[in-house]
Amino acid sequence: MTPAVMDGLMPHLIDWEVVAIMAPLLGALAGLVMPRAAAGIGIAAVGLTTLAVAALSWAVTTQGARMMALGGWGAPLGIDLRADGLAVMMLAMTAGVGLCISLSALAGQRARPAAGRPGVFWPLWLLLLAGLNGAYLSTDLFNLYVMLEVISLAAVGLTVMGGGAAALRAGFEYLMASMLGALLFLLAVGFVYLRFGRLDLMGLADLVTPGDPAMAGVLALMLVGLALKTALFPLHWWLPAAHASATAPASALLSALVVKVSLYIVLRVGQYLVPPTEGLVLLVGLAGGAAMIWGGIQALRAERLKLLVAWSTVAQIGLIFVAFARSGAAGTAESWKAAALLMLAHAVAKAAMFLAAGRIKDEVGHDEIARLDRSPVRPTLAQFTFALAAISLIGLPPSIGFAGKWLLMEGALAAGYWHWVALTFVGTLLSVAVFSRVMVPFLRFDRQRGPVGEHQGWALADAPPLVLALASFGLGLGAAQILTMLEVGEPFARATGAVLGGAP
Amino acid sequence: MSGIDPMLPFDVALALALVALSWAVLAAADRFAMVVLFIVLGLMVALAWVRLGAPDVALAEAAIGAGVTGALLLATLRHLRGPEAAPAPGPVRWSVAALVAGVTVALGAVVVAVATAPRPEGLAGPVRDNLPASGVEHAVTAVLLNFRAHDTLMEVVVLLIAVIVVWAVDRGLAAAHDPAAGPEADGLGPVQAGYARLALPAAVVLGIYLLWAGAHAPGGAFQAGAVLSAVGIMAVLAGRWRPEAHHRAWARAVFGLGAAVFVLVALGVGLGPGVAYEYPPHLAKPLILAIEAAVTLSIAATLAALFFGREPAPVSRSRGRRP
């Protein structure tokens, strides 16, 4: 269908925003009806979506932010889609990471068709992709809620897809946490409508006055709902089991992409609604700091590799919230860039790490950390990928993780938050300790030897995670350009005078 | 306004009943009683929506909130055997308690603040002004299928995901009896068979009427789909129809039909001078009705499939056919 759209759009500009949402949706429907061809359809749909996102990114970076009114109605009656620097970064992150995970899933399904369950995986992942893209382009609170519903239900499906009682139990807990978070968010959206009579973020930005007590409460409700969905300490209890029991591609999708969307909505809400009161920001920062420490400690105690990686996600989400709360003297108007960079860093590195962990588990046959060095098979390429991803997550130069942490510390120091810098150092040391636990045994060659040539355990499936891990270094070198792109459309200026473009 | 609204005592009683029923649902010790109370609560909530002047929501609540959800919960009861689950571990209970307390405080503050603030005009005015251009005469349908069609498409997708997930879950589990299959056809009592014979055609007619009425009066795809799904549920319960493995391809097609027609229309109208979802005014009504008809079929099939609860297994794995 989408090629037809391109033909038909000759008279006016192609609405790449619509393609980015509808291409995966149509791919999912086609894959649902033709389960045997689901993998091919899925790769094609993800590829087309990536092309649309690339075209949109090009248009936004060269011509500025663009906006289109679905149905031609325009806000507040209808729903507008808007692509600015932040939205485009999230879309590009989703497309790039998603494409690599898709290729990895394809390689895995070739090797083990029954375990991969292509007829289930591809429709769910494509619907998830449609929801993610829809959320990043949305400018409407209720529309964001609907997208969150699509995303969480598809994510729960990906969690339980692996089968088994543990995955089911983890998926059920995830579903409950996610539904509760969605309901809190919806309740807050209802109050916003009751108070202001509209739901479009840009219109609301003009109506909301700082220090409005009603809005402070609404914002608190919204934040709790989103914190539940993004697993901010102490509302993180569902995450480790859910992310550790899914299949490797599903874990990578959940950890790299799904938790980011609620974080993104936090940034957007901070952008358009009342500038958060200082108390709320401090609370978010404290929760983030606690998450960094608690997630690190739990990762140190984890006995299985995937559980360790999942707990490190809890810690990294805490780091992103610390960045959002504390990296800049000008408050969230400045700190969001550090948070956005860290989101990108975590998405790329964590996807690489979960895929590599999945490869290690596939080759070695288990993922008990204590016994990883006792195997005759040494999946060295996957181990190398894991180490590269760990470097970015720890934040060593020249990775993108380093760029994000640098921005965080620079901003925090400029604002005089030196004790928050100290807290970040503690979190960083914890992650060094966590990943050393895994990497030290990788370097021991003397425990058990297999026949030469058989102990490598390389496969084509090692390529996508390796590409992702290398990308975190490439992105680190290009961090300055990413920061420039983030400012397109000035996401945190009151955006009433936004550049209109795209659809006529 | 002079005097007291004669409906006031009724409204107060209804509000009190809602609170009491909610408490009773949570406090009920027996699972079956809990589900029945929940269904009653759903009907009372539907009544409350009528009193609030929202007949569309009332219809949806009665059909989906009380009807289909009640049937789903009752079907789920068959899976829940054995003793009640052990209480949650301490940290979970404490964080839930802290969450509930925090939310209650925040909610109280918000309710007070919003109630004392001036009431905005809202979007009723713009909806009224643009209603003639929407292609339908009923404001709720205009919002759902035209002004905010993007939201509605994604809600249809949510239902689609639900059925994909349910099918995926059940296939991963050990073989159990078919969850919601009623007595075998030959064991059907005369009352059930007679009721099914009378009720099924009536439900079909009612569902189609609700779909058609949606263009100018309360009704529409979600309500019609819920009523039609009851046809499927009754047919399964009465043993008139048993989902088989070879129905799966058709079932998948019907599950996806609503979203597919919706997407194709939304993109198709974007080929012309407009953007996506921008129906040409003279075609708006037939396009909206086409979308609604397809979505109704999908909702009906999806809800019925959710009630049946699992992907119909191939014959070799189905119970009783091969020892």
UniProtKB/TrEMBL annotation, chain B:
Stretches assigned to coiled coil: none
Keyword Protein biosynthesis: no
Residues of the MrpA C-terminal/MbhE domain: 96-182
Chain ranges of the MrpA C-terminal/MbhD domain: 17-81
CC terms in the record's Gene Ontology section: plasma membrane
Bilayer topology: Multi-pass membrane protein
Domain Na+/H+ antiporter MnhB subunit-related protein: residue ranges: 195-283
Keyword Cell membrane: yes
Location(s) in or outside the cell: Cell membrane
InterPro entries: CPA3_antiporter_subunitB (IPR050622), MnhB (IPR007182), MrpA_C/MbhD (IPR025383), MrpA_C/MbhE (IPR046806)
Domain of life: Bacteria
Spans through the membrane: 6-25, 32-51, 57-75, 96-117, 153-174, 195-215, 221-241, 253-275, 287-309
Pfam family, any one: MbhD
Keywords attached to this entry: Cell membrane, Membrane, Transmembrane, Transmembrane helix
Membership in a protein family: Belongs to the CPA3 antiporters (TC 2.A.63) subunit B family.
PANTHER family listed in its UniProt record: NA(+)/H(+) ANTIPORTER SUBUNIT B (PTHR33932), NA(+)_H(+) ANTIPORTER SUBUNIT B (PTHR33932:SF4)
The protein, known as: Multisubunit sodium/proton antiporter, MrpB subunit
Species this chain originates from: Rhodobaculum claviforme
